[in-house]
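Mods, move this if it's the wrong board.
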Amino acid sequence: MELYCRYKGYSQRSRSTLELSSAYSNTSFIGFPLIIAYYGEQNLSIAIICDQVNFMLLSTVGIICAIKGDRSNNEGIKVGALLIRLVTFPPFIACILALVLAQYVDLSVTEPFFDKIASTVAPLALFSVGLQLQFKGMKREISQISMTLLYKLMLAPAIVLIAALLLNVKGDIARVSIMEAAMPTLITASMVVQQFRLNTKLINLIIGLGIILSLLTTAIWSYIISIFI
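Not the wrong board. Structure tokens:
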């Protein structure tokens, strides 16, 4: 994205938006149901690990990327301010709490409640994205949208496939990892873009179009994976 934005002469704001859209994005809302559909619920744990690693990158490197593109930030990146942004990022707090509490407190009693709450997250999140989609003026940003979707849906999984072949990684770990890389940009990256006043319209278009296209591209990748892995 850096090379692409330099070639096109885009601003740092656009570059940060595109980096968040293509490199730092959770995959669970669409990814988990598709992984279950293609490879069974027994492989969901692999997808969760992939998603959490990506989430941690979003919460750290992704926040740095967002600060760079924030027009209101005239002081550059300061370590103290970065740490404050990180530790006050709600999804990051929730993730840390879940990891810590599970070691000391038996939360099995609350699982039915959280299962019900969790089942509402994906529909509400996708409904929220749908409300924010505005196709008016999309032609002006079609180049950025196309490049991001090309990378996210095709190039990224191709890179992971090549890495798996070179490192001789096979089986479910390889299959699920490649498929996770092929998932579209989703909600958490959009939250960061909104928080740091980046190009919200652009990322919402990428999310909306990516979800639709991913239903086709993941089917293609499932076939490709069956050939090579």
